[in-house]
Amino acid sequence: MAEDPFSGLFLLLWIVMIFFYPRMALMQIVWKLEESVKNLEDMSHKSRKIVLRQVSEKPSEKAKNAIDRMVEFFAVEPVSLDPYGIIPKLEHVVNAEEDKIKYTIEGITPNMNAEKRANILMGVAGAMAVNQIAKIVKHFLVMIKKTKNIQLAMILQMQLPMVERMAKAMYKGTEYLATGQPVGDSIGPLIAAKMIGNSTPRLTEYDTAIASVNYKERRLVIMKAAGPGGRLGRLGRATEAVLKNHKITKIITIDAAAKLEGEKTGSVAEGVGVAMGGIGVERAQIENIVIRHRIPLDNIVVKMGQEEAITAMPTAVKNSIPKVMEAFDRLLERTKKGDHILVIGVGNTSGVGNSAKGLKGTLETIDRNVRKVEAEKRKRREENKKFSRRVFGTVEEEDE
Questions:
Q1: For the chain, what is the largest distance between any 2 Cα atoms, rounded to a whole number of angstroms?
Q2: Hey, what CATH topology would domain 184-357 get?
Q3: Which helix (H) or strand (E) holds 202?
């Protein structure tokens, strides 16, 4: 019986593929990773330029070097082998980091007001995040090229879409924060400013604005980060100060919250506890205070995507304000007339003033940014349609 010549060829091809396919696959993945690293480094470079434009139209070499140093700046986490006392340690390191960056910004902007400096600080934080993402991805790329480890390459390739999505959001967020525009995370301070109304709030040493107003026969002590510059405020210490001067019977926090995929942007939910992000220092301080005073904690959150929290505030988030106020009124039903209630508008107060006096301009800015984002999406869809027609003869819709 004659031997089939194709069987030998197939066996040879199979042997070749066993030895060479992993190497070919690795080369293809590395090529893709190199393109991604190039894009990430480009975003990191552009984010620094965004911050520098806010420092000066023609930044000096001193300013450029200062921004480069800040982007590479890092804080060492305190030892946590013995967790007792870790919160004061974290607070000290975080405050030291912020003070260091503030000092550097003051050195290159001697004639700039405090609000613009606060915006630059937030822009630097965004640039630091983009730079760190680019460095980490490049680190793994170089390690993959050195070790020829295809398993590590495949793991990084699978994570890359989420990493790139995060980096793009931080890059866009850098521009909004550096220029002092409202972002999704500003919804808590925005509602607090609306509740303060035309009252004149008191500015504290903890970068917070506090005002007392009467509402439905209750006394509301409303707190937010001091604006309109980009700040988060030291809400834990500010809460301690408030409780020394007021007999608070309830604390209500209002904040943005990351939605799950499938949930609607702008949906409102109620809960208990301190609704507050970050590393946990401020939240832990407030929790320790309420335990000592036995104060009930309620919260109201507005759901949004992680990208929406640090980029232009979506219309759905802005339109959630009446729903938040309805939820707030329901929480007041469990209080008594004459009670003093602390309301904390948690979040980045970028572009949001300390009372309702400047809210008209803030809301107009939000609407203008929404129109800009929608125009960019339409332009991108049209470009994708033209590309699909030219290459494939069909139209492929972009996933939003």
A1: 103
A2: Rossmann fold (3.40.50)
A3: strand 202-203
What average pLDDT does the chain have? 90
Give the closest residue to 117 by CA, choosing from 207, 54, 53. Answer: 54
Q: At what angle do helices 86-108 and 114-147 cross, to 10 degrees?
A: 110
Residue 159's nearest CA partner among 131, 129, 126, 133 is: 133
Q: Write out pLDDT tens, residues 298-327.
A: 999 999 998 999 999 999 999 999 999 999
Exposure class string for 33-59: b at 16+ Cβ within 10 A, else e: beebbeebbebbeebbebbbebbeeeb
Query: How far apart (Å, rounded) are the C-alpha atoms in residues 278 and 260?
Result: 18
pLDDT at 125: 94
Ramachandran bin of 85, using left for φ above 0, alpha for ψ from -120 to 50, beta for the remaining angles: left
Domain regions of the chain by residue span: 16-76+87-178, 184-357
Three-class secondary structure of residue 232 per DSSP: coil
CA distances from residue 169 to 148, 189, 290 in whole angstroms, order as listed: 31, 21, 35
